[in-house]
Amino acid sequence: MSLLRLLTESGHDVRVVPTRSALQFVGAPTWAALSGHPVHTEVWDDAHEVPHVRLGREADLVVVAPATADLLARPAHGQADDLLTSTLLTARCPVVMAPAMHTEMWEHPATVANVATLRGRGVVVLDPASGRLTGRDTGPGRLPEPEAVFAVCRRVLARGAAGPDLVGRTVVVSAGGTREALDPVRYLGNRSSGKQGYALAATAAARGAVVVLVSTASLPDPAGVRVVRVESALELRDAVLREAAAADVVVMAAAVADFRPADVAGHKIKKGDGAAPTVALVRNPDVLVELVQGRRPGQVVVGFAAETGDADGDVLAHGRAKLTRKGCDLLVVNEVGPGKTFGADTSSVVLLGSDGTEQVLTEAPKEQVADAVWGSALTRLRLSTR
Ligand code: CTP
After folding, report:
1. Catalytic residue positions?
2. Could you give the CA distance from residue 244 to residue 113 in angstroms, rounded to a whole number?
3. pLDDT 10s digits, 222-269
4. Beta partners for 257?
5. Which terminus of the chain is less hemmed in, N or C, by CB atoms within 10 Å?
6. Residue 28: strand, helix, or coil
């Protein structure tokens, strides 16, 4: 119901097509009142209007939320025994499905196969969120928050004819600044907000990718994204390298600390009366370089470079040198400093390609930067699989 409200309040004309089971939860009169349109479940209702064909033809987007295991199985097999599944067969617009079910059902080979079939046909099937399910159990299977599903719908509609072009691709994105513990209370950190990484994950999901977000940030989970929470550079490295094994694209948007305290105190460091303590640091591994060294054939690796100009060169000169040094396919260079990029909703970046390409985006929303990164990564993926 919240999703319906979000859609209607943002000016969309929404037809609700409940299944017979859905009516067990909320009755047709409520859906009709909230949407402002008559509500039908069967193709026989108002048959003179041939509603399944009309609905499918008129829609700019069909969103199925929640999609039960049954609601994934029926369209995967072309079954059309009610108005919703019939509409899914007649629709030629983008389709977004937000599965929600118990973890065992989501992980069952039958459901896995049905999801793969639907994704193979270009349907945006969002991975469910993890958490408390309807019983006492917890795990993957929750319907993402309505705001997050709405955000996917908004992005899919905004893409229009471009459609979900990352369907069938798996991507890994790292986001946020790492926290390097000094003691159980304190850490060394940095100013990264994680917003760019979250925008990358959210846009990839709306473009149909299977998305893993390795994050240190505590922003709301984007819909359809599996979030792996980490804190330190070493935890982030383990998670990214593990997830990268199955990925077509890996984007290192995280601000990974180059150094960590050599020793982590097991108790809170007391100020005492003596001199201020000295913190010895040791180097962290460079995850991006490790990714490049271990990359699978055809895999695209993208880095970010937060730069300030200095006596040795301007921001772009540093960016070009870093692209060569790190050996990644694409480097997103942005200028950092007070008031620039950190925590902001827009950024000015240059996308440097290892093939010499340069794409400039000025004061662009982070979603737009994200879309440009995916566009560029996709071009490289297509070239490598030709
Ligand atoms: N990066 C990484 N592991 C590190 C440090 C950075 O994977 N230990 C990645 C970042 O996620 C980013 C890219 O490398 O994608 C560049 O990060 P940046 O901090 O700009 O570069 P540094 O490697 O720290 O280089 P420098 O200190 O020379 O600026």
Report:
1. 190
2. 22
3. 999 999 999 999 999 999 999 999 999 999 999 999 999 999 999 999
4. none
5. C
6. helix
What's the rounded Cα separation, in Å, for the pair 42 and 18?
Answer: 9
Count of CB atoms situated within 10 Å of the CB of 112: 12
Please check whether residue 163 is in contact with residue 115, taking contact to mean a CB–CB distance below 8 angstroms: no
Atom of ligand 1 nearest to the CA of 254: 11
Q: Which mutation among 230, 288, 307 tests ligand 1's pocket best, with the greatest number of atoms within 8 A of CB?
A: 288
* 138-142/129-132 β-pairing: antiparallel
The answer to whether 367 and 199 are in contact (CB under 8 A) is: yes
3-state SS class at 110: helix
User: Which residues touch 323 (CB under 8 Å, ≥6 apart)?
Assistant: 303, 305, 331, 352, 354
Q: What is the pLDDT of residues 299-321, one digit of tens each?
A: 999 999 988 878 887 888 999 99
> Cα separations (Å) of 166 from 32, 209, 374, 375, 376?
35, 5, 8, 9, 12
Nearest CA owner, ligand 1 atom 9:
288
Q: Which amino acid is at 244?
A: A
For the record, the structure tokens of 32 come out as 């009709």
Q: Are 203 and 373 in contact (CB under 8 A)?
A: no
Q: Say how many Å lie between the CA of residue 253 and the centre of ligand 1.
A: 9
Q: Encode pLDDT of 194-208 as tens digits.
A: 999 999 999 999 999
Query: Which domains does the chain possess?
Result: 2-159 (3.40.50.1950), 170-265+278-384 (3.40.50.10300)
Q: What is the DSSP letter of 295?
A: P
Place of tokens 């100009």: 309
